[in-house]
Design goal:
elongated, 69 residues, single chain, mainly alpha, 3 helices
Length: 69
C-alpha cells in the first residue's frame, strides 16, 4: 500500500467539539479529523450532484430500469 502524502497542521479547535467528535468516532484526534474531512468532501460532491438534478437527459427510461431488476 502506498503512503499517502500528509501535512502536519496546527489548528485551534474548540475542545468540546473535538471531544464530541472523538466520542462519536471512538478514534484519536488524527483519525477523527480525517473522518470529518472526508465527510465534508463527500458533502460537497453530493451537493454538486444535487445541483445537476434534472439537467441531464438519459436515453434509458426509468420504468425500463425498474423492470430490469
Amino acid at each position: 500500500m502506498a503512503h499517502e502524502q500528509t501535512q502536519k497542521v496546527t489548528a485551534h479547535i474548540p475542545v468540546h467539539l473535538l471531544h464530541e467528535a472523538q466520542a462519536a468516532t471512538g478514534k484519536g484526534i488524527t483519525e477523527t479529523l480525517k473522518i470529518a474531512l472526508i465527510q465534508l468532501a463527500h458533502a460537497g460532491a453530493y451537493e454538486a450532484l444535487r445541483k445537476m438534478r434534472g439537467k441531464i437527459k438519459f436515453s434509458i427510461d426509468v420504468e425500463d430500469l425498474r423492470k430490469d431488476r
